[in-house]
């Protein structure tokens, strides 16, 4: 019973933790531009994060190594350093995007100036990380982020044409503008597979001392948690497709995302959407700042851990504080956070193979994994997704340029 | 498995002291009796200067980073599993000094022990 309860809580946190600013931006923009046509890309992305997270969680439970331990052991210092630098570059852009997103939502809630709210957002995040025990952070942000489920209600209330919705799950590429279509495919898959989630997840598994007996929890968290998180992505795309596409509104601002919940549900829908976005995006900012600190700690062999007190893992503490600071400095220049979000997702796709490959190698290495190595199902998905990741990594930047960042 | 296999197998692994503290990585290895054809791991090398032996990027990183080279004689290794466990504390072996320096700074901020 206690076990089931723990699994349920983990899954709840995974749902709230799945959606971040990248998912919000790409799913609503894809819905507003192509209606339901790109739902299949979300399915591919969710399958990817399930495959990758399950593998990393299993590697952590069996071999007691987090992602960047495995990266350095498998790739060595030189190539490992390249993987680290690219991961940190993407993490910083993600943090910048999330901080900007928090400030935009705060602005929608309060009407105060965006720059002042950026300062407030980064200070509040730093204080939460400095003062709050991690168990609390996880609950407060994971569970409050569930307010985003309002988009599921909104999607139902908007009475979309369900045959059209069902057709969206079948991959096809017959759009007028293939470059824009391709750009959104890359963005949707990239947003679902955003790498900080996996760094964070595997490091947490090592910290919580998962062992092979915990592999059931790992599988449940990855499969059920991320699938239900994917449901939120569907809901965002479907409601944007039902409401914004016919009106010809393109959601260049997070305000129009909240509007998607307000139109069918009124004031309460608007407030739930904004609160859900605030906590989901803040939680993502926290997780990505931790992910950056984890990567550095594991690569260089420092003391690290979110359950340690601040002085117990001092360089780790300084690392997350600096990541937040640099992220803040990026958005305080006035660069559009939606632009930073899109770039962070596209670059994360390019950097993804550098951490994906060593994890796939370790998951197949009997010396690390004993009898818990990848089975044929794990390898079929592992290799399939490696190919998908490589293809979208190669296509990402040409599509970004050819589609003028989705503007056509 | 010979000692040299164990030695090469631990390159880039985590160092843990006798109290369970994470205190650096196996950044390089010092081999001896290579010429005699019976190579043996004499010591583990840890710290930024040891990156010089790790290719061009390693040399560049070593030039940019601060920190001293620590030589840990092979006799100080207690056990090798996922991590490389040492027989003595990081302080005795002069490892983990980057964390010690950072701790003196972090400790001054209120709430550091939360």
Explain what you see.
The complex is a heterodimer of chains A (408) and B (114). Chain A is an all-alpha fold. Chain A has a single domain, classed as Amino acid/polyamine transporter I (Up-down Bundle), CATH 1.20.1740.10. Chain A has helices at residues 2-18, 21-34, 39-63, 67-110, 114-131, 134-144, 150-157, 162-167, 178-192, 196-207, 215-247, 254-300, 314-332, 337-363, 366-369, 376-402. In chain A, helix 2 runs antiparallel to helix 9 (178-192), helix 2 (21-34) crosses helix 14 (337-363) and helix 14 (337-363) packs antiparallel against helix 16 (376-402). The longest helix of chain A is centred in the last third of the chain and has 47 residues, at 254-300. Chain A starts with a helix and ends in a 6-residue tail after the last helix. Chain B is α+β, with helices and mostly antiparallel strands. Chain B has a single domain, classed as PRC-barrel domain (SH3 type barrels). Helices cover 27% and strands 26% of the residues of chain B. The mean pLDDT of chain B is 91. Classes of the chains: A mainly alpha (408), B alpha+beta (114). The interface between A and B is medium-sized, with 30 and 34 residues.
Summary, kept brief:
The complex is a heterodimer of chains A (about 400) and B (about 110). By secondary structure, chain A is mainly alpha-helical. Chain A is built from 16 helices and no strands.
- The CATH class of chain A turns out to be Mainly Alpha
Oligomer: heterodimer
Low-confidence runs of at least 5 consecutive residues of chain B: none
Measured by residues with Cβ under 8 Å of the partner chain's Cβ, the largest interface is: A-B, 30 and 34 residues
List keywords for this structure.
heterodimer, A: about 400 residues, mainly alpha, Amino acid/polyamine transporter I, about 80% helix, globular, B: about 110 residues, alpha+beta, SH3 type barrels, 4-stranded mixed sheet, 3-stranded antiparallel sheet, 7 strands
């Amino acid at each position: 019973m206690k076990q089931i309860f723990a699994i349920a809580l983990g899954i709840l946190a995974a749902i709230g933790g799945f959606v971040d600013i990248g998912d919000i931006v790409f799913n609503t923009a894809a819905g507003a531009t192509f209606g339901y046509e790109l739902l299949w890309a979300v399915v591919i992305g969710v399958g990817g994060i399930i495959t990758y997270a399950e593998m990393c969680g299993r590697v952590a439970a069996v071999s007691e190594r987090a992602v960047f331990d495995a990266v350095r052991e498998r790739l060595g210092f030189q190539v490992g350093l390249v993987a680290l630098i690219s991961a940190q570059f993407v993490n910083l852009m993600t943090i910048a995007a999330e901080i900007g997103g928090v400030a935009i939502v705060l602005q929608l809630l309060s009407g105060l100036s965006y720059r002042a709210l950026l300062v407030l957002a980064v200070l509040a995040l730093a204080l939460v990380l400095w003062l709050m025990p991690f168990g609390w952070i996880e609950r407060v942000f994971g569970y409050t982020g569930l307010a985003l489920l309002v988009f599921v209600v909104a999607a139902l209330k908007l009475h979309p044409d369900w045959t059209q919705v069902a057709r969206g799950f079948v991959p096809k590429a017959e759009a007028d503008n293939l470059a824009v279509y391709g750009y959104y495919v890359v963005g949707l898959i990239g947003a679902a597979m955003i790498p900080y989630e996996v760094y964070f997840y595997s490091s947490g598994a090592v910290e919580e001392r998962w062992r092979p007996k915990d592999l059931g929890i790992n599988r449940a968290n990855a499969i059920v948690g991320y699938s239900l998180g994917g449901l939120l992505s569907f809901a965002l795309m479907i409601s944007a497709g039902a409401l914004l596409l016919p009106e010809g509104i393109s959601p260049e601002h997070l305000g129009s995302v909240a509007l998607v919940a307000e139109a069918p549900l009124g004031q309460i829908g608007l407030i739930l959407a904004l609160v859900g976005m605030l906590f989901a995006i803040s939680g993502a900012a926290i997780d990505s700042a931790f992910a950056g600190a984890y990567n550095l700690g594991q690569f260089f062999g420092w003391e690290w851990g979110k359950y340690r007190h601040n002085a117990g893992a001092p360089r780790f503490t300084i690392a997350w504080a600096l990541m937040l600071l640099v992220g803040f400095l990026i958005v305080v220049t006035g660069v559009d956070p939606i632009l930073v979000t899109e770039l962070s997702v596209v670059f994360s796709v390019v950097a993804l193979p550098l951490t994906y490959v060593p994890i796939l190698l370790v998951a197949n290495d009997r010396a690390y994994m004993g009898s818990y190595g990848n089975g044929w199902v794990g390898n079929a998905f592992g290799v399939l997704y490696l190919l998908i990741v490589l293809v979208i990594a190669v296509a990402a930047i040409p599509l970004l340029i050819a589609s003028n960042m989705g503007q056509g | 498995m010979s000692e040299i296999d164990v030695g090469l197998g631990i390159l880039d692994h985590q160092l843990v002291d006798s109290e369970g503290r994470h205190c650096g990585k196996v950044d390089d290895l010092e081999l001896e009796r290579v010429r005699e054809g019976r190579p043996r791991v004499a010591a583990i090398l840890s710290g930024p200067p040891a990156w010089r032996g790790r290719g061009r990027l390693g040399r560049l990183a070593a030039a940019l980073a601060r920190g001293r080279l620590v030589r840990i004689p092979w006799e100080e290794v207690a056990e090798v599993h996922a991590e490389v466990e040492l027989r003595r504390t990081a302080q005795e072996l002069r490892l983990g000094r980057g964390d010690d320096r950072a701790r003196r700074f972090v400790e001054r901020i209120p709430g550091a022990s939360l």
